[in-house]
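User: Second chain of the day. Same drill as before.
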Amino acid sequence: MSIDVLEKRRMGFVVGCGWDRRTMPGSLCMERSWHRWRRRPGSVAMVLNNENFGDDPSSKGSEKFRMLRQLFQENTKIADIIGEKVELRQAGSHLVGCCPFHEEKTPSFTVYEDTNSYFCFGCRERGDIISFVMKTQDLNFRQAVINIGKRFNLESKLHELSFFQPESKEQQVARAEATVKIDEMYRIMEHAAEFYSTYLRSSSGGAKKAFEYLSSRGFDEDTLRRFRIGASPDSAGQLIEYLEKKGYGPISIAESGVAIRTNKNDLVDAMRGRVVVPIMNVKGHVIGFGGRKLSEEAWGPKYLNTKETLIFKKRSTLYGESFVPRPQPPATAVIVEGYFDVIQLHKHKLFWAVSSLGTGVTIEHLRQASRHSRERAVTVNMDNDEAGFSAVLRACQSIFPTAMREGIDVRLAFLPPGVKDADSFLDGKSISDYVDQVLSPSQSWFLWYSKVLANDVNSIEGLSSLLHRLGGLLADSIPARKEGTGFVAKEYARTIARELADIFDRPEYEEETCKEILRSFWLKRTGGRFDPEQGRESKWDRKRGESAARSIVKGSIGTLPGWENANNSFIQRAELMLLRVIVQDRDIRRNCMEIVDRRGIKFAEDEHVRVFEWLKENAGDAGPDELFEEMSYERPVKDVHRYFFEFSATVDLEREVTKSLNAMEIRRSMNIISAVDVIVEEQMKVEHMEPRVATYVEELLSRRKELQMRIGTLHDELRNLDVLPDV
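Assistant: Same format as last time:
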């Protein structure tokens, strides 16, 4: 087999090999989708696991997407789209150029005009005309299809395909009203940015003070113009007057966030006596503002952002993202804390830096930043103070494990002692110093967190508890049911064991430490059913702690037949059915999501958690056909086929939803009760219980009783539906 064929096999293509299923080598039959095509010379087949269209006859709506693919195949030219970003030249039957997704001097980016597809032999990026538009223009699937349709005058044909299901009149009116309001907000924010920029260059005292401050920070005129930095007057109403003269009403001005209501319901400017930095989205539209006050007498905290609005969501907004160059992403993106840090890093030619607009890093921040990295890697460099340290610690407990499960490589970089932030570090130093002294020594968040936890250990018992905790955290962080899970866990365990042996100066403990971490990993990953030392089901299985607690507290949950020993498959089926209903039926989708949030119901499966979170953020009123194709392009939820199937006409959707929600809530409540029982057991061992502890235990028992009553109600509902788990 030639190297060329091997390379194309890796990207999901089989090119010109002339094989059919009977003669295809067994090593190439791994993808079940390949079995449906007979090879012919020069043909290109796209596999379902690619970011391209699937052609699975069992998939709902596959005929519609086949027609859409055929429409684009016959009426579009991928070379025209890519040629706007890349200089292409002919190389045989293909076109080649320097890859827009990574830096290179020798062209390795290949465009196949006959199939409207592309592949880079350097960074392994591949896809079709839709995926290229999505990646380079930061659009979702529907936006990319519409964009391509307009580019090649295919709007009428897309309409004939009825690719996007028509909205009801009410939905059309609501969408139109929201669009009008959002457009107005964008215009208000643009006028506000012009106001702040103009004021900075005025002759007033406040403007001169702001200009002197920015000059002292090393901001020249080019930097001020590029980042559209401005200043706000000390008075409380100049911006409001300016916007009212532009024709905007008080309600619209307040809703945009540039003005706020006082306790007396007066409308005043949100930014007063501050240097003002416009916050822009990926497309360069101003969506909010950040301000740094110039004197201690100024109103509000030192740093202030405008409030969240329809167009500004802090947990999913990264400052500086609009300045990140799209064509050539680096190996890792960099998240810093403040907007001045980003501006200084960009001034020094590190264009991959963005800011989380404060100390809190969210999973949305990491997902967005990872899109600017060709290896889905993100380096986090918070300020060198207590708030920054606390933010990293909080993220290590929940945010970073979630990111790791989704395939995002998070690393932590720290500034030298005495240096507060990246902006201060670059004062008098070069970007090479920042890379060498801060970014290069970065380390895995898991390894760093392990060493931080080890600093609090001062006994053998404490070390044992630490190893158990690290094994459990590792189980929460490594994606489930992936090839190489055991190998990855073992490598992490070995690295951590080696570090801990150095910390405690006990090299002889390294092997046993590694084994104990792995044991805790597998016990947590299998729910206690598998002990790697015994090689069989473990008696631990969560019963050791629970049985003693239940002998203390009366009214065990075991009175509900079937639930004590219900296997996980029942809960998994309930979660899967709920997701299927949410995907298939747009009418009950929003109600289902609200119930899940209101009742605090959690999904147990990592994959189900990712799918549910993606649906909450992206589903809206989309039909199953649209969701199928859009989800197949999204990395966290690519393997989506099992969430789509034709419901039988006899299926009662409301019954399925009730069954799933009740089963999931019962399991969650049981987990809480188990945790309460363990806590109570530990506290009951204390001979003289402090009054505050006794009150705490009493509150826990009261909560436990409420949960038991709730479980009884849910169980009765399931019994009436004739749905109970297998015992």
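Confidence is low (pLDDT under 50) at residues 1-61, 534-567.

User: Great, on to the next one.
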